[in-house]
Amino acid sequence: MLLTLLRLIVKQKKVRTAKQRNYRLALFLCLLCSAMIALSFASVPLYDLFCRATGFGGRTQKAIDGLEVEQKIKKIADSQQKIRVRFDANVNAGLDWKFAPAQIEMEVQLGEVYETKYIAKNLSEKTLKGVATYNVTPTKTGAFFHKIQCFCFVEQQLQPQQQVEMKVLFFLDPAIREHEEWGTFDTITLSYSFFPHSD
Fold this sequence. Notes:
Layout: H1 2-54, E1 61-62, H2 66-75, E2 82-91, E3 97-101, E4 105-109, E5 114-122, E6 128-137, E7 145-150, E8 156-158, E9 163-172, E10 187-196
Parallel strand pairs: 1-7, 2-10
Antiparallel strand pairs: 2-4, 3-5, 5-9, 6-8, 6-10, 7-9
């Protein structure tokens, strides 16, 4: 009788231990799935932050200080070098927008400020938000491509069927002429990709 009672107690402990292990495993898997989903939503902003910090992937530079821009422009007063800049636009499949450059390319003088426009249209019947990532090719020219004003600095919201023009003010730093690959290319491509953005 005592032996049977002891066996029953041991069996109950094993059942409890197995249930506790299963519960812990289920909790761990739920947390892991939640972390992976959160990371997938954060991947675009995190990649964008990484590229801004390192210049990876042809990330352009943001010119914040007007004085800094003015000084850079003064430095290149003697520069007569020109280069062609092409404009590219892409939209992620999850965003029902039409997005294209107003002009395909332009020839720019090093150090001079230029303005270009992109046109975006919400093709859906609901308000949609988008955020743009950007890069330039050849990738090593990203450090010399400075944007003073750009729609990519903030998220964009378009009402149903709304169409807008989005400005970009930029200049190419004349220091690009000192780059080891200067002379091996005559065109720089500025490319934007819009992704859906949710609060």
